[in-house]
């Protein structure tokens, strides 16, 4: 197959074709507009220079070289130097004379559909039954923690006992919500870093020294209105998934994001919370269903953690998205900052 430049130019789909050495031979105007750069500056550019998240397309091209079938790279992140990164599902088709045809089908970084809303009623009933069975053991743990707290000294693990007590309270509140759904609690001003520090303490006690935990915080971020317990649960689900995916390092990164669109609404400012790990990555066969309940890449997994994290994001008018390849996975929680939020 040989691309027809005239036909490609008439397409609204961003299209480019590559030499066998993986430099750009040409592209249509839609491709240049999508990246915000002129066609002249694209010609001869190595494809690697356009990958905002290096490695995904190169690995796909290595696989494409072994066969003639088109390959799809889901949610690839492309961008020109100094410009804004764009997300797209990219199709790579080998050309008869060598090289590849590249089609970019743009997608939203934070899609508006919420798969977590698809939780079936039968599963809801099962969860309520499980919640009822767990209440008594949690009450026993709470009592044991209180007794233990009276016996340990200041430097003898009292902080860990307090952590056990607070986590039991949080889980009990979660079970109460499953048994008797009520209106969400009013949001109160919170510091996102306080939430993440609590999550890191849980991770330290869960993984010990097996995982390196890294803080990469922007200390200038403002407070936002939210539910600290729910955000703790969402962030902890993301970190625990990273640990269970064999990560040797997990980084919690926070940044400010300006002029953000989440779904149909625009926000002048949002907090970007990223959980970055070097584990096995998301299996390709789960990429389209990852946020659905009961979908898990582990035999022992429940498949509820990411669905819950997605729901918590929506409760805060935010969004949860991810990008992944083996050795580098990033889950991004975007939380808008209302204009009336405290600075």
UniProtKB/TrEMBL annotation:
SMART domains in the cross-refs:
HATPase_c, HisKA
Parts of the chain that traverse the membrane = none
| MF annotations from Gene Ontology | ATP binding; phosphorelay sensor kinase activity
Q: Which Pfam families match?
A: HATPase_c, HisKA, PAS_4
What does it catalyze? ATP + protein L-histidine = ADP + protein N-phospho-L-histidine
What PROSITE patterns does the entry give? HIS_KIN
**Among its keywords, does the record have Translocase?**
no
Query: What EC number(s) has UniProt assigned to this enzyme?
Result: 2.7.13.3
Q: Where is the signal peptide?
A: none
What InterPro entries would the database entry show?
A: HATPase_C_sf, HATPase_dom, His_kinase_dom, HisK_dim/P_dom, HisK_dim/P_sf, PAS-like_dom_sf, PAS_4, Sig_transdc_His_kin-like_C
Q: Superkingdom of this entry's organism? A: Bacteria
Q: Where do the Histidine kinase domain residues begin and end? A: 129-339
The alphabetized UniProt keywords are: ATP-binding, Kinase, Nucleotide-binding, Phosphoprotein, Transferase, Two-component regulatory system
PANTHER family, from UniProt? SENSOR HISTIDINE KINASE, SENSORY HISTIDINE KINASE_PHOSPHATASE NTRB
What is the protein name stated in its UniProt record?
Answer: histidine kinase
* Primary gene name: ntrB
């Amino acid at each position: 197959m040989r691309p027809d430049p005239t036909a490609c130019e008439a397409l609204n789909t961003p299209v480019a074709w590559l030499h066998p050495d993986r430099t750009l031979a040409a592209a249509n105007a839609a491709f240049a507009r999508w990246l915000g750069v002129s066609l002249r500056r694209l010609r001869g550019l190595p494809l690697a220079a356009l990958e905002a998240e290096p490695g995904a397309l190169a690995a796909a091209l290595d696989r494409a070289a072994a066969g003639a079938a088109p390959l799809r790279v889901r949610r690839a992140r492309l961008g020109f130097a100094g410009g804004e990164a764009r997300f797209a599902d990219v199709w790579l088709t080998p050309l008869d004379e060598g090289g590849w045809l590249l089609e970019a089908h743009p997608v939203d970084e934070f899609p508006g559909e919420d798969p977590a809303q698809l939780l079936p009623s039968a599963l809801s009933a099962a969860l309520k039954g499980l919640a009822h069975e767990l209440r008594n053991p949690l009450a026993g743990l709470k009592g044991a923690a209180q007794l233990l707290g009276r016996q340990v000294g200041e430097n003898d693990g009292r902080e860990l006992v307090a952590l056990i007590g607070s986590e039991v309270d949080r889980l009990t509140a979660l079970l109460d919500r499953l048994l008797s759904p009520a209106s969400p609690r009013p949001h109160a001003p919170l510091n996102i870093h306080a939430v993440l520090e609590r999550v890191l303490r849980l991770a330290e006690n869960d993984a010990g020294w097996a995982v390196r935990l890294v803080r990469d915080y922007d200390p200038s971020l403002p407070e936002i209105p939210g539910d600290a317990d729910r955000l703790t649960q969402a962030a902890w689900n993301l970190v625990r998934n990273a640990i269970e995916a064999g990560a040797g390092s997990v980084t919690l990164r926070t940044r400010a994001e300006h002029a953000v669109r989440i779904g149909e609404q625009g926000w002048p400012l949002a907090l970007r919370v990223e959980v970055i790990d070097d584990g096995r990555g998301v299996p390709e066969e789960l990429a389209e269903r990852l946020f659905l309940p009961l979908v898990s890449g582990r035999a022992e997994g429940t498949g509820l953690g990411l669905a819950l994290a997605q729901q918590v994001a929506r409760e805060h008018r935010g969004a949860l998205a991810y990008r992944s390849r083996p050795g580098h996975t990033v889950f991004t929680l975007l939380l808008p900052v209302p204009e009336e939020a405290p600075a």
